[in-house]
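Memo to structure team: turn this sequence into structure tokens by end of day. - J.P.
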Amino acid sequence: QVHFVASGGGLVQPGESLLLSCVASGSSISTYVMGWYRQAPGKQRDLIASIGDGGNTAYADSVKGRFTISRDNAKNMMYLQMNSLEPEDTAVYYCNAAALVLRNGPRGTYWGQGTQVTVSS
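Reply from structure team:
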């Protein structure tokens, strides 16, 4: 079973940047479409960025142009570079295999350890 741990979150001011990292263990992610998700308190998780096995990327409108998703299959890791952060970006951020989330549903997916991002205004 693949296990994901997200890290790199913290408290930042509007306009600042943050780099999130995701490490996967237990299985290779090289063939997976991977995704970054975020969840604000009392809200559903939203897919905000995805990256395919061939490196193609897609972004939610809310983060397009500000966030960049990348992956390093050799290290079994994924990253999210977040620039121009806004208070609306405040949430717990999770990484996962997007194909598994789609297949199993958000409630049926193991989410692992997320990381808190707080953008203070």
